[in-house]
Amino acid sequence: MSALRIKKGSSSHSAYNLRSSYGDDVERHTLAVTVMNEPGVLARVIGLFSGRGYNIESLTVAEVDHEGHRSRITIVTAGTPQVIEQIKTQLSRIVPVLDVHDLTAEGPSVERELGLFKVAGKGEQRVEALRLADIFRAAVVDTTLESFVFELTGTPEKIDAFADLMRPLGLVEVARTGVAALARGAE
């Protein structure tokens, strides 16, 4: 889980231009990569991205099959259709990678993320933070006389929206898990 300190006046919006220099649209894709759970595999996957200048917007990894020693890496990245195809091809060539699925291209999927938000405030700001947390179905997981820690699960857009609303109410710190995603349906 990564933590991000919020500075007053900072913006959560990306500064990336959503068009390549060739005029192709940049698309956001969620990739599910099954790998052997062994030392160095994550470093090799990340090295593929950094070595070619690809950005990773979100990265989650955990062992999903203890007996088979397999882990699942969920990567959210963006690029032109050609870049996304190149990423998938290069990922599948890494020896400990068992399979690569582009959840965005393969059909409907479910994406969720967990966020923890520390909000400090008194009086009306405190009341408003609780009211908004209730609307978003965020749970209060810690409280003091001057702060709350809220837990919220939802789409990345929901997490972003909650952070944007909490910022003027005293948002101090945010920790996000990154996207976990599964394809919908029986397969």
UniProtKB/TrEMBL annotation:
Stored Pfam families: ACT_AHAS_ss (PF22629), ALS_ss_C (PF10369)
InterPro entries in the record: Acetalactate_synth_ssu, Acetolactate_synth/TF_NikR_C, Acetolactate_synth_ssu_C, ACT-like_dom_sf, ACT_dom, AHAS_ACT, AHAS_small-like_ACT
One GO cellular component term: cytosol
Enzyme Commission (EC) number: 2.2.1.6
GO biological process: isoleucine biosynthetic process; L-valine biosynthetic process
Record-level Gene Ontology MF annotations: acetolactate synthase activity; acetolactate synthase regulator activity
Record CDD domains: ACT_AHAS
UniProt keywords, alphabetically: Amino-acid biosynthesis, Branched-chain amino acid biosynthesis, Transferase
Protein function: Catalyzes the conversion of 2 pyruvate molecules into acetolactate in the first common step of the biosynthetic pathway of the branched-amino acids such as leucine, isoleucine, and valine.
Protein name in UniProt: Acetolactate synthase small subunit
